[in-house]
């Protein structure tokens, strides 16, 4: 009987990994489009606008993202967590109460945030852009929250199709049309970038309504989740989500304020390669979150550990080659956006960020695992400390070191925000990302995309590029060869 139970547990773990792989693959396809789309948006803005105008666009969109994170109130993570747990435990009748508890406050907060931005727009460097973006904050919040609820049902398709593919492609088409027409201004570029949030929000609402009605939850015996239970989990995450996005976007705003819009454009261009890693981690994390929450709820630490370690191997396999290639070919990467961006400062920014982002990738979806374990209060403390480190170092370093100081501040904050929760997760739950497959991925990527190209770099950049191309071909063959294992 014990052997049978062990076999059942192992089979369940394998099924969780297969489910995560299917969802993760769909998310990774979407993340590839979204990540490359983010780079393309940066490139279009950089080549179509002057550095000052591009800096204004980057700073204003960062304000928009931060305001949206504040208005979401942590609802996306709360909805994923509660919908996944209720669905796993057969309590679909209580999902309606969770949706009402999360969506209505977020909707009210989104309109309040939009109104506040409209009033305070003159305080920013580009008030006209801030006013334009403020109008679309409710649509952005609605899209994120509604799609999060569908992920709680373990449905990755809506997030991929509506957000990562649909919204990204619509943004690129709009920006591309404006650039080709030769009428590019910061206002038109901003409008083309933000407009797709509105149809995406409508599509997300339509899909969630269909899924919720199809479950027949409203016809079941009345069941409720209390507001205290929902917000007890979600409230710490609300502050944490703002701080988390602050780590990604606040530095652009601070560079614009302390060093000028031109410097903000240079800094944004130099750091955009990080989008690839963030998208890969986010794609895998979105697939892992509902399954990790269900595993924790079912008291299945082996399943949670396997999810964490296998997903980290995927993230390392996808991000380390990109980070190392950008670091070794920093000049070529920067010149893609225009010669005015290929400066010594920009090159140093790349070199400072690459090792920090590699470390973050090696920690895997540590943020998601900690929140799905129910430790959102720990997560809030961790990300708050990281944000304090980021802001403090930015204030100290940007006036004297410019964009390089901002890169040092961001790198320090990234290390704190990954290593501290990793230590907590390891100590409290025995969860860590360094399984056998992760160790192999770290070693192989480091040798193939780091040591080998660096060894031939004295012979010239062409040799470095050839070594990276050979490593990439071998990497693709290896991933294809071990696709069933991964």
TrEMBL record:
Locations listed in the record: Cell membrane
Membrane topology note: Multi-pass membrane protein
Matching InterPro entries: MATE_fam, Poly_Biosynth_Transport
One GO cellular component, as annotated: plasma membrane
Pfam family, one: MatE
Keywords: Cell membrane, Membrane, Transmembrane, Transmembrane helix
Membrane-crossing residue ranges in chain numbering: 24-49, 55-82, 103-124, 130-153, 165-182, 252-270, 313-334, 346-366, 378-398, 462-482
Highest taxon, organism lineage: Bacteria
Record carries keyword Phosphoprotein: no
Keyword Transcription regulation: no
Signal sequence, renumbered to the chain: none
Primary residence: membrane
Single GO term (MF): xenobiotic transmembrane transporter activity
UniProt-listed PANTHER family: POLYSACCHARIDE BIOSYNTHESIS PROTEIN, PST FAMILY PREDICTED COLANIC ACID TRANSPORTER
Protein name per the record: Membrane protein involved in the export of O-antigen and teichoic acid
